[in-house]
Amino acid sequence: MPFDPIYLAYGAIFLFVLLLVEGLYYLLADSRRGGGHNINRRLQMLASGADSREVLYKLRRIPKKKGAKSFADAIQLIGPRNWLDDMINKSGLTLSTSKMLGIMAAIWGGTFLLLAGVMTMPTLRALFIALIPGVGLPILHLMNRKRTRLKRFLEQFPDTLDFIVRSLRAGHPLSTSMSLVSKEMPDPIGTEFGLAVDEMTYGLDMRDAFLNMSKRLPLQDLQYLVVAINIQHGTGGNLAEVLDGLSKVIRERFHMFSKVRALSAEGRMSAWILSILPIGVTGAVWGINPRYFMDVIDDPLFLIMMSVGIGLLLSGILIMWKMVRFKV
Fold it and tell me: What's the total number of domains in the chain?
């Protein structure tokens, strides 16, 4: 009995759907565990009975087995893989890079099957177009989580510095103050300080623990704290007074930033409207009269004019957003 190639297509569809469902499950489950602003993930994991070292490995995304090389180890030196691994760390997810790559492959394959099988698009074109959601959607999700997490950390940072200052003035050492922050503050700052405390518990120097935190959270305000602790650790001094002044400066700068955002709200709204309006008008014209574009699509000048128009549109959007984004 001859083998029917249609069974290969069925098998590929089953595999892509299975990977897509599994990937979305891990992504949503991990986002739910790490997305609560009023829940300290580290304390929640410790309360469930997990060992502190296991929690540290889980949140730091450190593999438990260091023996045989895994797929992730095999591609460790690839630049995009390192960038993706760094992005996952900064977003606060605990997914491994291999699972994230599997999610991307599943979305890519599912989109390809939709375009090639349902919409009967040519295979090569469908493969390239499917790359856009396959790679773009997970990366956009990571970038959004990273931006939200860093913003939340900045909002909590002045209160955390005040907490540390009061603890230091009460006579506690800095390590005890950090432990209190990890128990009293919500995510993300509670978990981050808890990771630093756990790293110090298992032998890492305090300066290296703060350096690791600054790598996970690339914020200028946190760099000030790291520099202050390094100076105090090397030369001594009144750390409470330094952190008190730093807290006041950061809080005033945050208030200034909020004031600038309020004053530029009208400009940002105008930029949003002017950015979306051309796309909305094009979609409305296409929906009302599809032949408006189809009658001239074969004209040699059509692609040239469309390319120039899209280029000018993107340039205008970029200039508008540069004008309404202020650095404080």
Answer: 2
Question: Within the chain, where are the H helices?
Answer: 6-34, 41-47, 52-60, 71-74, 79-91, 97-113, 123-169, 174-184, 189-201, 206-216, 220-235, 239-263, 265-288, 291-294, 300-324
Which DSSP state fits 118? I
Q: Comparing C-alpha atoms, which of 194, 242, 250 is closest to residue 219?
A: 250
CA end-to-end distance (rounded Å), the chain: 73
The per-residue pLDDT for 20 is: 67
Q: Rounded to an integer, what distance in angstroms lies between the CA atom of residue 76 and that of residue 291?
A: 51
Q: Are residues 164 and 301 in the same domain?
A: no
pTM: 0.71
d(CA 174, CA 12): 56
Q: Which domain holds residue 214?
A: 1-246
DSSP SS3 for 77: coil
Residues 121 and 179 grouped into a single domain:
yes
**In sequence order, which residues have a C-beta less than 8 Å from that of residue 3 and are 6 or more positions away?**
none
189 lies in some domain? yes
Helix axes 123-169, 6-34, angle to 10 degrees: 20
Regarding whether 291 and 156 lie in a shared domain, the answer is: no
41 and 188 together in one domain: yes
Q: Which of 89, 85, 90, 94 is nearest to 54 (CA)?
A: 94
CB 30, CB 99: distance < 8 Å? no
Across the chain, what does the average pLDDT equal?
81
pLDDT at 231: 87
The DSSP letter of residue 66 is: -
> Residue 201 in contact with residue 46, Cβ under 8 Å?
no
pLDDT digits (tens, 9 = 90+) for 117-164: 777 778 888 888 888 888 888 999 999 999 999 989 988 999 999 999
* Amino acid making up residue 21: V
- Distance CA(246)–CA(244), nearest Å, equals 5
CA atoms within 13 A on the CB side of 141: 18
- In angstroms, rounded to a whole number, what is the distance separating the alpha carbons of residues 187 and 38? 6
